[in-house]
From TrEMBL:
GO terms, molecular function: DNA binding
SUPFAM superfamilies: lambda repressor-like DNA-binding domains (SSF47413)
CDD domains: HTH_XRE
Organism listed in the record: Amycolatopsis vancoresmycina DSM 44592
HTH cro/C1-type domain ranges (all copies): 18-51
Top-rank taxon, per record: Bacteria
Protein name as catalogued: XRE family transcriptional regulator
Family matches, as PROSITE patterns: HTH_CROC1
């Protein structure tokens, strides 16, 4: 059973389990729909985590239908209850669009994130000054209050790196351009680079730098993130963001393509210790 504080990931785990249990029972979605007296579309919503499962549907129909042993029922019922709660980020729905709220929910419940950054420091590794400088230079017109709220959300996301008892495992490959782009001025950049050095010293955080002299590489297409989860059977999610939203790629071949690309980028990049030395040297240049 999954353990997470993210209702998004509770929903995802339960959805995967419902698919597994249905297939093991030799049933199709139409059979489940008949038992629930609902449309096949509703069953599909449950199985893709688009909607939280109704508790009555679960304990009165689905668990008996799938012949789940009574001793295991509490796990599924607890998951359904947790999946219907609200994540802290959902209280910022006025400024966090639904497409990105999903990302935050997945990130907050993940056990591993691998990310390639081509232009800016990944959100989980940004300092407050860097965040504000980025938001003020964005293409979206925002009020000062909106900028503060967005900064609050982004900075709050970092708590997952200190999560107890199991912090998120973060592996970031940063293009050299990320470190050389002067965001917010020399003092802000120096603080940001010093923060990267500090974070790289944590046991579950790996930071690598991909220098310009490596030439062409798999990341020239653009930045991406691969999110992994703690339970077996879930291949994870590859995420690619654009100006108006984000793509959540969940087909096995899509995830594999991004995992292979990340492996190649990691192999081309400086080793973690060399990367820290590289970042420290750049930080000195900003003095």
């Amino acid at each position: 059973m999954v353990e997470t504080a993210s209702p998004t990931v509770w929903r995802r785990w339960l959805a995967f389990e419902l698919v597994r249990l249905r297939k093991e029972a030799g049933l199709e979605q139409k059979d489940v729909a008949k038992a629930l007296r609902c449309t096949v579309a509703k069953v599909s919503y449950y199985e893709t985590a688009e909607r939280p499962v109704v508790l009555r549907d679960l304990d009165e129909v689905l668990l008996p239908l799938f012949k789940v042993p009574k001793s295991q029922w509490p796990d599924y019922i607890d998951a359904a209850k947790h999946s219907r709660t609200k994540g802290w980020w959902e209280s910022y729905s006025e400024i966090v669009p639904s497409w990105f709220s999903l990302y935050v929910g997945l990130e907050q419940g993940a056990n591993q994130v691998q990310t390639y950054a081509a232009q800016a420091v990944p959100g989980l590794l940004q300092t407050s000054d860097y965040v504000h400088a980025l938001l003020r230079r964005g293409t979206t017109e925002r009020t000062d209050d909106e900028i503060e709220q967005m900064a609050t959300v982004r900075l709050a996301r970092r708590a997952v790196l200190e999560r107890e008892p199991d912090p998120l495992r973060l592996w970031a490959v940063l293009d050299e351009a990320v470190l050389r782009r002067l965001v917010g001025g020399r003092e802000v950049m120096r603080g940001q680079l010093e923060h990267l050095v500090k974070m790289a010293g944590k046991p579950k955080i790996t930071i690598q730098v991909l220098p310009f002299d490596r030439g062409a590489h798999p990341g020239v297409i653009g930045p991406f993130t691969v999110i992994g989860f703690a339970w077996s059977g879930d291949p994870g999610v590859a995420y690619v963001e654009h100006r108006a939203g984000g793509f959540y790629l969940e087909q096995p071949h899509e995830i594999e393509a991004h995992e292979v690309a990340f492996a190649h980028l990691s192999a081309l990049a400086l080793a973690p210790d060399e990367s820290v030395t590289f970042i420290e040297r750049l930080a000195e240049e900003y003095r």
